[in-house]
Amino acid sequence: MGFAQDRTAPVVNTRSGPIRGVIEGDLAVFKGVPYAAPPVGPLRWRPAQPHQGWSRTLDATRHGPGSPQAVREGDPILGGHGFPPFDEDCLTLNVWTPGTDDARRPVLVWIHGGAFISGSGAMPNYSGETFALHGDLVVVNLNYRLGPLGLLSFASDDGAECGNLWLTDQLAALRWVQDNIAAFGGDPGNVTVAGQSAGALSTAALAAHAGDGRLFHRAILQSVPLAMPLATPAESLARTAAYLEIVGAKDEDELRTVPWPRLVEATAGLLTATMEWGHWTAPFMPVLDGGTAPRQPALNLLDGPGADIDVLIGWTREESAFAFALGEAYASATKEQVLRRARDSFGDGAAEAYAAYEAARPGARPIDVLIDLSTDELFRKPTLEFAEARAVRGRPVWAYEFGFPTPAHDGRMGAPHCLDLPFVFDNFDTWSHAPFLAGMDTGIRDALARTMHRAWISFVRTGDPNHPGMPRWDRYDRQSRTTMCFDAVTAAVSHPTPH
Length: 499
Prior knowledge:
The chain is α/β, with parallel strands linked by helices and about 500 residues long. Helices cover about 30% and strands about 15% of the residues. The chain contains 15 helices and 14 strands.
């Protein structure tokens, strides 16, 4: 179907009913498509339920509202992450396709990050346009419940009940893909789920259900915080109790009467209550339960149901600069403060560890040591341990480090969390609001973006990220420990520099 010539608004019959999309360039785009029943009224804090469907053709030309969340004004890094409108009736997805035909194209499902409290599929940053156009892919992204509406758990101490409503949303979206994507020109037997940060942790958690009709076949995990374990049911209930106190509600029934703006507002109080100097914390965390997340996410891709899934995984070189580099409380950090923080990780070996980090980065300030320590602890070390474990089991895994630094903010951030996103999507025009991209050499930037974008496309299409425009990228194994370093000069290294 040549959309450049045929400007008719495309109509596709889904299992819930017909939907009408819009032509954008050479793509058909369907926005705001419901994939589950609105989680409102009696369905607030209930697992995602099937949508009842519709008989008339549904208009799918505008994005649905995002999950309720706070809007941060003047964000010095991203310039904001999630914009109104918001509504509890948010369980919709968006589809970009080169043709509503029977071509059975590979499918990419993108899950946004945002610490489980921000982001949406409506954000231009996460548009599937570039992947669909450049890779001949069908691309899906989605909204899911965030913050207290998606992660507040009332499950019992034994964890037998569902404590991860956000994950039931994502599972419902993947089942929607299995049921409907063929009508959009996609192949339900060739699905890659990709995500960054909380979206990457989601991807690993979803692998617990990979055996359920083979919901997906490949996974891309960008900046996945594998060292942040899922909470135990007891820990989650304690956080729920703290949240109830902040809101001023005595129990779940009373909380159900509270309008969502007040629920979102109370998140700030919970964040303050859970913050710890030098630690990257989140107000809400997924919980281990018997129904949706029975084990820590990484285990799903090692010996669990997702063991046969192809995996591409990596981190940015200064991940934790996102949390610490620009904060006044950290920019003036002293060596004594960072040593106290290092004792949380190294105990009596904190001074020796500090000296090693200091030596690894000539001229390092205490804040630089904190950034490198935290990056290693949360992202780099557990990612490499995961790659080692996959390699031992003979499971395919490709590892990478994104090291291209941003000159923004006088170069204090290096290559922070999220900086790889516009390179992977190759869509810098949609990131014009993001201060952390300022000052880059556009020639080097764009060449690196083409390399990464094409590698991700190749992986989605074939399970192998190699393409003619980049150095050979071998699977990670215990002999070579090959890791692709994406930087001004992209190269495969045998042993990533240890800290």
